[in-house]
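ARCHIVE CARD
Drawer: 12
Card no.: 0347
Subject: one protein chain, sequence and derived structure
Cross-reference: see card 0346
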Amino acid sequence: MQNRSPLLETTRDDDERQDRLQARLLMTLRAFAFKANAAGLTFPCEATAQALLPLSSTNSYAERLEESIHRQDRAYRSATWTQAIEKQQPLVSNTFRVCDQWGKWHWLHEEAHVLYQPDGWDAVGTFVDVTRQERNAALHVGQTRILKMIAEHRPLATILDSLNLLIEELVPESLTCILGYAPLTNSVYDLSAPNLPQGYRTAINGLIVSPDAGSCGAALSRKKPVVVKDIATDPLWKDFVTLAVDGYGLRSCWSHPILTNEGNPVGTFAIYHRHPHTPTGWERELLATAAYLAGVAIERSESENTIRYQASHDSLTGLPNRHRFTTDVTAQLDAARQQQTTLTLLFLDLDRFKQVNDSLGHSFGDHLLQTIASRMQDVVGERVYRMGGDEFTILLENSDARQTDELVKRLRRELSRLVQLDNYEYLPSVTIGISDYPGHAENAHSLLKYADIALHRAKEDHYGGTRRFDPILAQNLAQKVQLESDLRQAVEQQAFTLHYQVKVDARTHQPIGVEALIRWQHPERGMVSPGEFIPLAEETGLILPLGDWVMQTACQQARAWEIAGLPLRVSINVSARQLLQPDLQKRVQSALQQSGVRPDLIGFELTETAILKHGKSAERTLNALKDLGIWLELDDFGTGFSSLVSLRNYRIDVLKIDRLFVHNLKRTSNDAAIVRGVIEMGHALNMTVVAEGVETRAQAELLTELGCDGLQGFYFARPVPVEQLCLDHAPRLRRAA
């Protein structure tokens, strides 16, 4: 056997060593030299080819390279080379993705210099691994795009779909999925997975979270990333391997929890492959970045949803609010017009809610509102709105009068049940106004306005009533608005007069005083009844300046009579709102000083309801007035719920028996017994007792017999202007003086 030459052996070993060193250097630099011509592709270093290209049954490097290029990039690279050769371009440049023999994807930048000869062409060039640069650039662009979509308030589904597609592009041959987490049910729900099989998405939707419920369940339970290389063998997937592997060919799943800034889980981001696969370090970082971006999008969406909810819902009851009502009623009216159907509006007001708050406290008031809201929803579902305070509305689509009436009955039964909180109990009631389209209104504003008008008319009738709108109500409201305007102008111009009604001694029938009664001569309507404009003045607050004018005018008239030698006590009616004025004592003192009248010639008539309603506050005010020296007279006694015992602390001077007891007074009637008892108790408390509403001689005689001190009524005198009073009663006034 011929011996090998040591020199040749050494040279061959050196060449192989040089090849390996060159391959190692190129692998370190991630650069690979190549030659190419029409016949194919060659590599100067065999080790380079083995590292770059996947194993294949073919010996052709060109075919092996073609097989390793990503399917989306093959046509583009082939077209670039074909065009360059046809046009004899000296430089060919491409960037594409290849899969190496270990299944990892790389981005290669190809750059080749081409020499053209009559019989063909030859090229030399390099493949440079630019995976990191390309991936980072693509991730930066994609991340910027996702954040921009979040900033632009794009729909959450659109943002999450775009994020999934970005990750699938950066991790070739992957399928991605974003699941949301519902803590109340401890389950996941489908948010986005544009390329994951729909059947699989449906199957995992609603999956209960547990530490062994697949990669996503484990990630949510641990609040840490969970990587499963092979679903077929991993114990986390034992209950789902048939679904994932056999059903849909999924073999690996990496899942990362999506956490809030407080560390609370709101979902997971998962990457699937159809073959066993372990993530690289970069892919792990990418998974974390994807979960972070999904978390930003989800939190931003939830914040916006919360803001939208708060803007359209009442914070106390959770009901849609006035803003939402306006939007909904407009939309439902449009639908009713198109479909030629009806829309009915119920406007509900909780009766005496202010008194509940004042007497039982705001905590009970809040509980009452929440209970009422819940009960209304139990009856009518999601068509209830809280308009503010104690007002609610309900919208009924295509409900006729009979159906509406039946619903109102059910509402009343439900809402009138006892409400309890701690040691307090309350039986609520509601007043309801109704309007409808097209019967009453054509737009949202009119529909609400007319229901409100009907509601307030129902309240005027009685609490707990129901009233449908009719045009007469609107006409009455217009008249009321006009009257209020005229009343304001009259108050500013002091366009009122005082009439006076004489009070007489029950035995001598001589005048003992007068009551000042306001009158309004309207320039167009003539004399307006006090029963019409006094309640309006109370409602609008005009009673305060009006009361000041009455007090000043009456004091001046009392002083004029005093100067004329006719010292008559003038009684002035004081309303409940006036009694609440903190500076009422100063106002009265000012009127006394400006007029110069003796305080004992002025009496204030107050109703028992006004006094008892304000308790200690009223007691302090009345004591302060009494300290000024004026008389206090209790008007309309017997029409409220008081007793003389409860009034004995108020230093009342005069007790006036209401005309209701006088009107049907007979010697053997119950009214006579009541009047006798009132007179006796009044005298026992050192009060002067005066009966008002005396219209007949028989009434006057019986009241005198029962012990009444003073009488007032049409039998003796009607209210008249001061000039007429002086003419009619001059002789008696002089005798009284």
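Annotation on reverse: The chain has four domains: 6-129, 151-310, 315-469, 495-736. Confidence is low (pLDDT under 50) at residues 1-12, 22-29.
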